[in-house]
Structures are given as C-alpha cells and as structure tokens.
Write a structure and sequence with these properties.
Length: 729
C-alpha cells in the first residue's frame, strides 16, 4: 500500500461532503453553463451558450495520435486502449507539457463506463505491457505532481472524482490521451475521437462549475492533426468516401470545440504525404519477404562483425530481431491503412471541408489558432556521423571500421529503429523514382528554411518521377540500396540538397502547412522569433512526440503564453488586443571541465595510428565553436562556449568529439562516442530557461557539473560539463 498523506486524507474527506454527480450526455449538450463575471474572455457567437477563457483557468491538453496499424497487426501496441497511449506518447514529453521537465511519476485517472480508475505510473512503467486497459476505458487523463501526493493503491470513484475537483481549482495543466484506432478513413476516426473525448471530458469535468471546467489545448501528432482540424471544422458534409458525422456527434463537437484555445500539430500532414503510395508497395514487399531478407542481413552481420563490437547473435536472436525489425518497418511505413488514401488526397480536403479558416469554435464563430511544427531528417540524430561497415569486405574493399553503424541502430532503442526504417524507406522512394520531382521525391525546396539537411540519398534514382499508383516490384537495385543503407552515410545538418527536408514520413512544407493561406495558421519557423535550430529540427516522425524538449517548448511558448485570439502579424496568438508577445533573448554558457579517452580507440587497435588530438565542437542553437586539445590532454578546462541573443526558451546544444590522428584530417574511425544513446555519437542536450533543467541525452540541473559518457566500449569518451544560463545584467 502506498502511504496516503494526512493532508490528502483530510482534503478528500472534506470533499466527500460535496460530491459532484456527472451530467448525462443529453444534459451536457443542452444545459446552460454558469457565467463568470470577472476577467474572462468570451468567444462565442450569439445564440450559443458561451464558454469563457481565462489565463488562470485549469488547462487540458488533449493528445491525438496519428496513423496506427490495424488492431490485429500489432497486439503488443494495445491499440484502442489506454495501453496504446503509453506506447505512443513519451512519458517525459507529457510531463514537460505540464511544466514538469524530468518528472518521475504522475497520477493517471481513466474515466470508464463504470466510474473511474486511478493509477500512479512511474517513468519506468510507461509502456503498454503494464497497467493494461480494462473493459470500458475511455481517454485516460494525466495529472501533474501536486501537494496531494500519490494516489492510494486502490482509489474509489468518489475519491478520484473529488481529486479531479481539487486539481481543477487552479491553473493546473492536465493531459488527456485519445485512444482511437488509427487505420480507418478520416470521418470514422473523427467520429470515434469525438465520442471518446466528449464522454471522458463529460464524466471528469462536466459536473463542475464552469470556472473549474478546463479549457482545451489540442496537441496532435501526424494524422491526429487532420483529425483535430476536422473536429474544429465540424463539417456537415462527408469525407471523400461518403462517411459523415451524425447530428449527435456534431453537437458533441460543438461542445468540445468552443472550449479549444488553440491547436498545435506535430508533423501533421497538412498537405498530404507522398509516402502513401510507396508505403503500400513497401509494406506488401516487407510483409511477404522482409523477414527472410533481414535474417540474411543479420547472418551477414554476425559473420563479418569484429569482436570488439560485441554483437554476436544466436540463431534465435537473429530470428527474433529480424521479426521485430519487420514489425517496426511495417509500423513506420504504415502501408495497409485506409487513411493513407485520405492523405494522398489532402489537396481535395484543403479545397473542401478543411479549407483554411474553417477551423472555428463554432460555425461562423472565432477562428482557432493553429501552430504547426515539423520534424526533419528521417535518420534523426541516430545517424549523425559518417561510418563504414565491414560488410564491404565481401566486395574485396578494405575500409576503416567504426563501431557506430546501422547494425547498432537496428538493434538499439525504439527511436533508433524507427529512424533506420524511415531511412530505408526514403532510400526506396529515391531509388524507384517516387515523388513530384524525380530525384527529389519530397519536392523541390522553395524556401531555404525548409532545406537545412542534405540526404544521403540525394541524386539517387531516375531523372523522371515514377507515376503514382504504377505497379512496382523490387529488382536487383534493392540489394545495392540495402548495402548503402547498412554503410550508413549521414543526413548532414546545415547543408542543402535542393529537396524539401522531411521527417521520413512527410515533407517539411506539408508539416508546416507552407502552401495553406489560412489566417489562423502560425508557422513556427521564423528565425527572427524562434531561432534557426528548434528542438524538433533533429527529430524524425517517430521521435518528435517523445522528446521532452518539444513538450517543454510547447508548454513555455503556447500553453502558458499564447491566447485564443488570432492576431496577424505577431509571432503568436494573443489573449487581448493589448497583448504584445515578446521574443525571448537568452544567453547560455557551456563549460567543458574535463574530457577523457576512456579506452584505447579502434584506430589504435588496428595500428592505424598512435596518439591523438581531440577536436571538440559545441553547437549552441545555430552557433558552432570548435577547439582542439593537444595530444595527451585528459583533464582540461576549456574556455567557455558562449552564445547570446537566443530567441527561444528551450535551447538546443550539440557536442561532438573527433580524435585526429593527423591534425586537421578526420576519418570515420576517428569519431569519438560521447552520447550515452546507443547508435549515436553526438550528445544532444536541451536547456529549459524557465525551469533551469537540462534534458535530452542527459538529465541534469542548470549550473551543476555532470558527466556524459559514451555508450560503447570503442572510441568511448567521457566529458564533465556545466551549462549555465547567463542572466541579463
């Protein structure tokens, strides 16, 4: 039994005297809502019961996930239940959305058809194999840490109802997670989402006075952004397949959308995605042949991997890893999903039921601000340096060996496996000519800000585009592609290749609604306001909703600052006409207090060279500074790396180390491993100026000294760092 704080026992007992009975569905749609007379903002047209917004009201972030496999294809994901919420969204991402970066636990209350269920998962329990869903579960609600402490072991419904009432007494930020099945066409998904979110909101908050009913902030990933836009449009017409919302569902949508302050979309395919066509082809091939092909790859790896990589697999290991990777690849490309047909036809939706400026709180009501965020680079940060794999010895070539390659990516954590799968899919798209521009499947970049990464697949493939929906079958070129994939050339940041950047599933222009002219869209790529290196710029489609840095940025810039009123010409939506959003200007100091080569490097073991100079590069936001240490230096105190005038409250930091056998010349095997993340050499950190917390590959407090040590035994480096915000004088 978990101890129940005495204070909480007293509060719960007092609240039991004022137990609140939830209203029925019919009552909540029709019932008048009490008005607040001091300080609120009313945004509703005449004839509708108003809902009042206020900076100090409780806030409910509603998470809408993207495309999922069919329920029977991925039983481990617990699709359709609360277990899938834990599979899909990162624990620290959710904590950061609540303003609690690096939190260890949170109370989760799930409305059900029979009452409420309460749990207190820790970060280590945030996966679908634990706390499995019970029958009748609706959308679970995550609550921030509070003086009320942990929920008791077996809380009753009345107890949890009173807890909700107490937590809605201030400006707390709660997070509700939609659990719909994400493989259907547009309108069936919208209908299921409306029904679940409405009923969960109704049961949890519907009986509270309006002053305590939380205002809603939609935060969505991938196709979830299109779901949210459709809810806010609430069309009477159907989708492209003739599916329509019922009158009751449209009434529920009105109840929800008039409570929405804003929408933030992460990697939303606002302009569709070209992957909808090759995804089906690739998925069909993978499902038919993928396990055999991957098994052959792993057998080859086993044969040619040097001992120091410590990657020996048994036959059982190889079979299991091949099966797992095939499932990951199928999940990444999402080939057999009805909604991919919707994504191919987003141009029709954007000219019809989802045309710009129809996303409103009520029909002909106020426009809802839409903030668009798009990741980049399907390799993500996991394919962050050049490397050569000894598989090339089969062709008689002798190349340097470096421990970080795609075998580590494939066998590493989930995010790196996603990155590898998306990388491979991009290679297929280039090789077989998918896309609008032949060698540039994602399209020709029209703005420099949308072309910050160069792809290792740039220039691969035919000069003309392959007609969409044409028949496809792999040929001998696929083996060459697989070899190139295993070699692992990087996506290079701050280089252009003439093609829109992508996150592996959709192009940058689509994620940022670049071609949509709606006055309610706020694109978050303006360097004057936010800088040129935002937290999500190094995330792929499968990691953007797991990064605590992204959650912290949304909390800092949108949940606590942005308002419900659309305002053209300003960097964000506002609360009132006199609101003047200010661009932050921060300064940061990074001190490398120690740097040490933990073990002999691969280069020395192969007698390629002896001795070394270390070259350390620190990139703070977009400013990179490089310094070189002389041979034999281990414990050093370098001059601080400083960057000022950073227009962001969440500041990206990248640190990499190169061992130079010959000064000024770096070979792939000279890459030093500083990151603790498997399959990654560069350290990625993020400093939150409002909480003084460091997140990313290492969690720490600003101003404190901390160590970062590379994950591998080869080329392993350890650094002692200290990161401090420089406050204005």
């Amino acid at each position: 039994m978990k101890p129940l704080p005495i204070l909480y026992r007293a509060l719960a007992a007092a609240c039991a005297l004022f137990a609140i009975t939830p209203m029925t569905s019919a009552q909540i749609v029709q019932a008048p809502i009490p008005q607040i007379v001091q300080g609120p903002i009313q945004l509703a047209p005449a004839g509708y019961a108003p809902f009042y917004f206020n900076r100090n009201k409780p806030k409910l972030v509603v998470l809408l996930h993207g495309v999922t496999p069919q329920q029977g294809e991925a039983p481990d994901q617990r699709i359709g239940g609360s277990g899938h919420a834990r599979h899909y969204w990162g624990f620290q991402f959710i904590k950061a959305l609540q303003g609690e970066v690096n939190g260890d636990w949170m109370n989760v209350i799930t409305p059900t058809t029979l009452g409420f269920r309460g749990r207190t998962p820790m970060a280590a329990d945030w996966h679908p194999a634990t706390l499995d869903a019970s029958s009748g579960d609706l959308a679970p609600i995550c609550f921030p840490t509070s003086p009320l402490g942990l929920l008791p072991e077996y809380p009753g419904s009345a107890y949890l109802k009173n807890y909700i009432s107490l937590m809605c007494g201030g400006a707390n930020t709660m997070v509700m997670i939609n659990t719909r099945k994400g493989d259907k066409h547009l309108m069936p998904q919208v209908a299921e989402t409306i029904d679940e979110i409405y009923m969960s909101y109704l049961l949890a908050f519907g009986g509270l006075p309006q002053a305590k009913q939380p205002q809603i902030y939609f935060v969505t990933h991938s196709f979830g952004g299109i779901i949210a836009r459709t809810i806010l449009a609430n069309p009477s017409a159907g989708d492209l397949w003739g599916n329509k919302l019922t009158a009751e569902q449209r009434a529920k949508a009105d109840y929800l959308r008039k409570r929405v302050v804003l929408l933030c979309t992460l990697a939303g395919p606002h302009e569709g995605t070209l992957i909808g066509d090759p995804a089906s082809d690739v998925a069909n091939y993978i499902s038919s042949n993928g396990t055999n092909v991957i098994t052959q790859f792993f057998n080859t790896f086993n044969q040619y991997t040097p001992d120091f990589l410590d990657l020996d697999f048994t036959s059982e290991d190889i079979n299991q890893k091949a099966t797992d990777f095939v499932e990951i690849a199928l999940d990444a490309v999402s080939g057999k999903r009805d909604c991919l047909e919707d994504l191919r036809r987003m141009k029709e939706y954007n000219a019809g039921i989802l045309k710009p400026n129809v996303e409103r709180r009520l029909t002909n009501g106020d426009a809802v601000p839409i903030f668009t965020i798009g990741g980049r680079c399907p390799g993500g940060r996991f394919i962050d340096q050049s490397r050569r794999f000894p598989l090339l010895h089969i062709a008689g070539e002798v190349t340097p060996i470096h421990a970080i390659n795609n075998i580590d990516v494939i066998t590493g954590p989930r995010f790196s496996s996603d990155a590898a799968a998306l990388n491979l899919v991009e290679g297929v798209m280039h090789l077989y000519g998918y896309g609008r521009a032949g060698k540039r499947p994602w399209g020709n970049a029209e703005a420099a800000i949308g072309d910050r990464f160069s792809s290792p697949w740039a220039g691969v493939g035919p000069a003309t585009a392959r007609p969409l929906a044409a028949s496809w079958s792999p040929d001998g070129r696929l083996l060459d592609l697989a070899v190139d994939f295993l070699i692992g050339d990087p996506y290079v940041q701050y280089e252009a290749d003439g093609e829109w950047d992508s996150d592996g599933f959709l192009a940058w222009d689509s994620a940022n609604a670049y071609h949509l002219t709606g006055s309610n869209f706020y694109r978050l790529y303006d360097e004057a306001f936010y800088g040129s290196n935002l937290p999500w710029d190094i995330d792929n489609h499968g990691s953007i909703m797991h990064s605590a840095a992204n959650g912290a940025w949304i909390y800092n810039e949108l949940i606590t600052q942005a308002g419900p009123t659309v305002s053209q010409g300003k960097r964000r939506s506002i609360w009132n006409i006199n609101d003047q959003p200010q661009t932050p200007s921060n300064a940061l100091r990074v001190v490398v207090e120690e740097i040490e080569d933990i073990q002999q490097t691969a280069a020395k073991k192969l007698d390629v060279g002896s001795g070394a100079d270390f070259m350390i590069t620190v990139r703070i936001n977009e400013l990179a500074t490089t310094r070189t240490l002389t041979e034999g230096d281990k414990h050093v105190l370098l001059p601080p790396f400083i960057h000022s005038r950073i227009p962001s409250t969440v500041i990206p930091i990248q640190i990499s180390v190169i061992e130079l056998d010959n000064p000024g010349q770096g070979d792939p095997h000279d890459i030093c491993v500083l990151s603790p993340q498997k399959g990654q050499s560069t350290v990625y950190l993020f400093y939150d100026t409002r909480t003084n917390k460091i997140m990313g590959d290492k969690m720490a407090n600003g101003g404190d000294s901390f160590f970062v040590t590379g994950w591998t035994s080869s080329n392993q480096i350890r650094c002692k760092l200290r990161i401090t915000q420089i406050l204005p004088e």
